[in-house]
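Protocol step 4 of 6: structure prediction from sequence.
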Amino acid sequence: MVYIFPTELEASAFRRLCPDAEIHISGVGMAATAATLARLATKRREACYLLAGIAGAYGDAVALCDVVEVVSERCVELPARFVKEYAVVPRTHLRSVRSNTVCRAMEHGDGAEVENMEGAALFAMAEALGLKVMQIRAISNHVGDSFAEWVVDDALEALAIKLLELKNGE
Protein backbone atom coordinates (compact mmCIF):
# COMPACT_ATOMS: atom_id res chain seq x y z
CA MET A 1 0.00 0.00 0.00
CA VAL A 2 1.25 3.47 -0.90
CA TYR A 3 -0.18 6.21 1.32
CA ILE A 4 -0.75 9.72 -0.01
CA PHE A 5 -1.67 12.63 2.24
CA PRO A 6 -2.30 16.20 1.06
CA THR A 7 -0.26 17.70 3.92
CA GLU A 8 2.35 16.65 6.44
CA LEU A 9 -0.11 17.60 9.20
CA GLU A 10 -2.59 15.04 7.85
CA ALA A 11 0.16 12.39 7.70
CA SER A 12 1.70 13.11 11.11
CA ALA A 13 -0.44 10.90 13.38
CA PHE A 14 -0.24 7.92 11.00
CA ARG A 15 3.50 8.44 10.52
CA ARG A 16 3.89 8.29 14.32
CA LEU A 17 1.85 5.06 14.61
CA CYS A 18 3.31 3.40 11.52
CA PRO A 19 6.81 4.73 10.80
CA ASP A 20 7.51 1.95 8.28
CA ALA A 21 4.61 2.89 5.96
CA GLU A 22 5.39 4.31 2.52
CA ILE A 23 4.00 7.85 2.81
CA HIS A 24 4.02 10.61 0.21
CA ILE A 25 2.82 14.21 0.62
CA SER A 26 0.99 15.38 -2.50
CA GLY A 27 0.12 18.96 -1.67
CA VAL A 28 -3.38 20.36 -1.44
CA GLY A 29 -5.80 20.30 -4.34
CA MET A 30 -6.52 18.40 -7.51
CA ALA A 31 -3.49 19.43 -9.58
CA ALA A 32 -0.99 18.48 -6.87
CA THR A 33 -2.73 15.16 -6.26
CA ALA A 34 -2.88 14.26 -9.96
CA ALA A 35 0.78 15.14 -10.44
CA THR A 36 1.85 13.09 -7.42
CA LEU A 37 -0.16 10.07 -8.49
CA ALA A 38 1.18 10.29 -12.06
CA ARG A 39 4.77 10.46 -10.75
CA LEU A 40 4.26 7.52 -8.38
CA ALA A 41 2.43 5.41 -10.97
CA THR A 42 5.31 5.67 -13.46
CA LYS A 43 7.40 3.68 -10.97
CA ARG A 44 4.79 1.34 -9.42
CA ARG A 45 1.70 0.76 -11.54
CA GLU A 46 0.68 -2.36 -9.63
CA ALA A 47 0.52 -0.67 -6.22
CA CYS A 48 -2.69 0.29 -4.47
CA TYR A 49 -2.68 4.02 -3.73
CA LEU A 50 -4.55 5.20 -0.65
CA LEU A 51 -5.35 8.90 -0.35
CA ALA A 52 -6.07 9.87 3.26
CA GLY A 53 -6.87 13.11 5.01
CA ILE A 54 -9.59 15.22 6.53
CA ALA A 55 -12.92 16.18 5.04
CA GLY A 56 -15.93 18.30 5.89
CA ALA A 57 -19.41 16.86 6.36
CA TYR A 58 -22.56 18.38 4.94
CA GLY A 59 -24.97 18.94 7.83
CA ASP A 60 -25.22 15.93 10.09
CA ALA A 61 -24.61 13.39 7.30
CA VAL A 62 -21.47 12.13 9.05
CA ALA A 63 -20.36 12.79 12.64
CA LEU A 64 -17.19 14.62 13.57
CA CYS A 65 -14.17 12.26 13.82
CA ASP A 66 -15.94 9.48 11.91
CA VAL A 67 -13.66 7.79 9.40
CA VAL A 68 -15.23 6.92 6.05
CA GLU A 69 -14.29 5.44 2.70
CA VAL A 70 -15.10 7.72 -0.21
CA VAL A 71 -16.34 5.62 -3.12
CA SER A 72 -17.84 8.30 -5.34
CA GLU A 73 -16.43 11.73 -6.26
CA ARG A 74 -17.29 14.60 -8.53
CA CYS A 75 -15.75 18.01 -9.13
CA VAL A 76 -18.80 20.18 -8.59
CA GLU A 77 -17.34 23.60 -9.35
CA LEU A 78 -17.33 22.91 -13.07
CA PRO A 79 -20.27 23.95 -15.23
CA ALA A 80 -22.97 21.30 -14.77
CA ARG A 81 -22.57 19.86 -18.28
CA PHE A 82 -18.92 18.99 -17.52
CA VAL A 83 -19.39 17.40 -14.09
CA LYS A 84 -18.50 13.73 -14.13
CA GLU A 85 -19.02 11.29 -11.30
CA TYR A 86 -16.16 8.89 -10.63
CA ALA A 87 -16.74 5.74 -8.61
CA VAL A 88 -14.69 2.91 -7.20
CA VAL A 89 -15.62 -0.36 -5.55
CA PRO A 90 -15.46 -0.18 -1.73
CA ARG A 91 -12.38 -1.96 -0.37
CA THR A 92 -12.98 -1.67 3.39
CA HIS A 93 -15.63 -2.26 6.04
CA LEU A 94 -15.85 1.50 6.66
CA ARG A 95 -19.00 3.44 5.81
CA SER A 96 -19.02 4.29 2.09
CA VAL A 97 -19.82 7.89 1.19
CA ARG A 98 -20.19 10.16 -1.79
CA SER A 99 -18.00 13.28 -1.89
CA ASN A 100 -17.70 16.54 -3.73
CA THR A 101 -14.24 17.78 -4.65
CA VAL A 102 -14.15 21.54 -4.19
CA CYS A 103 -11.73 24.45 -4.16
CA ARG A 104 -13.80 26.26 -1.53
CA ALA A 105 -16.64 25.09 0.74
CA MET A 106 -20.04 24.57 -0.85
CA GLU A 107 -23.25 25.51 0.97
CA HIS A 108 -24.92 22.15 0.39
CA GLY A 109 -23.80 18.74 -0.75
CA ASP A 110 -26.34 18.14 -3.53
CA GLY A 111 -26.49 14.46 -2.53
CA ALA A 112 -22.94 14.11 -1.25
CA GLU A 113 -22.24 13.47 2.42
CA VAL A 114 -18.74 15.03 2.53
CA GLU A 115 -16.39 17.31 0.65
CA ASN A 116 -12.63 17.44 0.16
CA MET A 117 -10.15 19.08 -2.19
CA GLU A 118 -8.36 16.16 -3.87
CA GLY A 119 -10.57 13.11 -4.38
CA ALA A 120 -11.85 13.64 -7.92
CA ALA A 121 -8.27 13.90 -9.17
CA LEU A 122 -7.40 10.58 -7.51
CA PHE A 123 -10.38 8.81 -9.06
CA ALA A 124 -9.92 10.43 -12.50
CA MET A 125 -6.25 9.39 -12.60
CA ALA A 126 -7.15 5.88 -11.46
CA GLU A 127 -9.70 5.61 -14.26
CA ALA A 128 -7.32 7.00 -16.88
CA LEU A 129 -4.31 4.88 -15.85
CA GLY A 130 -6.05 1.73 -14.62
CA LEU A 131 -4.75 2.13 -11.05
CA LYS A 132 -6.07 0.63 -7.82
CA VAL A 133 -6.99 3.41 -5.42
CA MET A 134 -8.76 3.98 -2.14
CA GLN A 135 -9.75 7.16 -0.34
CA ILE A 136 -10.16 7.29 3.43
CA ARG A 137 -11.25 10.51 5.16
CA ALA A 138 -11.79 11.58 8.75
CA ILE A 139 -14.41 14.23 9.37
CA SER A 140 -12.84 17.31 10.94
CA ASN A 141 -15.66 19.79 10.52
CA HIS A 142 -19.11 20.52 9.22
CA VAL A 143 -19.05 22.44 5.97
CA GLY A 144 -19.39 26.13 6.78
CA ASP A 145 -17.87 25.90 10.28
CA SER A 146 -15.20 28.46 11.08
CA PHE A 147 -11.73 26.96 11.29
CA ALA A 148 -11.76 27.54 15.06
CA GLU A 149 -14.57 24.96 15.31
CA TRP A 150 -12.71 22.23 13.42
CA VAL A 151 -11.47 19.20 15.40
CA VAL A 152 -8.42 18.48 13.24
CA ASP A 153 -6.22 16.79 15.85
CA ASP A 154 -8.98 14.43 17.02
CA ALA A 155 -9.98 13.61 13.44
CA LEU A 156 -6.38 12.89 12.45
CA GLU A 157 -5.89 10.61 15.45
CA ALA A 158 -9.05 8.68 14.49
CA LEU A 159 -7.81 8.51 10.89
CA ALA A 160 -4.39 7.17 11.95
CA ILE A 161 -5.95 4.46 14.12
CA LYS A 162 -8.27 3.30 11.29
CA LEU A 163 -5.43 3.33 8.76
CA LEU A 164 -3.29 1.23 11.09
CA GLU A 165 -6.19 -1.22 11.55
CA LEU A 166 -6.62 -1.45 7.78
CA LYS A 167 -2.87 -1.92 7.29
CA ASN A 168 -2.74 -4.70 9.87
CA GLY A 169 -5.70 -6.36 8.18
CA GLU A 170 -3.87 -6.51 4.80
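Step 5 (inspection) to follow. Residues 2-168 form a domain with the Rossmann fold fold (CATH 3.40.50.1580).
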